[in-house]
Design brief:
The chain is of the alpha/beta class. It has six helices and seven strands. A seven-stranded parallel beta sheet has the order 3-2-1-4-5-6-7, sandwiched between helices. β1, α1 and β2 form a beta-alpha-beta unit. α2 runs parallel beside α3 and α3 runs parallel beside α4. The protein is globular and about 50 Å long.
Amino acid sequence: MPAVAIVTGGTGSIGAATGRRLAQDGFIVVLADMNEPAEPIAGCVFARLDVRSPESVAGLFRFALTLGSLQVVVNTHGILHETPIETFDEDEIAAIIAINLTGTARMAQAAGVHLADGGAMVFVSSVTASIGRAHGGYAYLATKGGIESLTRAFAVALGARGVRVNCVAPGFVSVPMQGTGAESREKRGGTEALLPFTPLKRLVTPAEVADAIGFLCSERASGIAGVVLPVDAGQRAF
């Protein structure tokens, strides 16, 4: 039976790179997102997903299970809105939490039901979960910290079935998040302004993040569970 992987946020830069990596590793990959990919990726199929909707999540898993044995679920979806500490916009904060944190928990709960024994689940956090100098986005930072807590909780809950749950925490990526993410970066001086805080003096690429995710989904990581793996060109160490 074919091995199937789900990647949420599958049309974003990290999601698409992850889909490409897992397809190269032999998975049938379901790229799940609100919007269709700009171009097809070999070995990947698209499914529309709204992580705020229990019905949409349930439908995604039903579809994935028609393709084969669900071995991997990777949650890369997320949004960024600016939430400066001088304000408290209830709607903005609720939207970030609903997608980044509640949506991730909803996906994880469903994955816990449908993943084959011995499968793998990977969350995507951010270096900003552990630093306070990422100005103007405290709600986003808080959700990423929550995702790291979800990693540990689900690693313990699913470990007896051999399901390994881990997390990658990218640093600032060479391709900024769509929409507000790109705008926020430019407002603060663009990529060049980030380099002094990066020991390798460059930003990581989506492909580098995807390679780390691919490793955590593979048998090479068979003894790894409950960890948060930075992929940040050294930013967390700075």
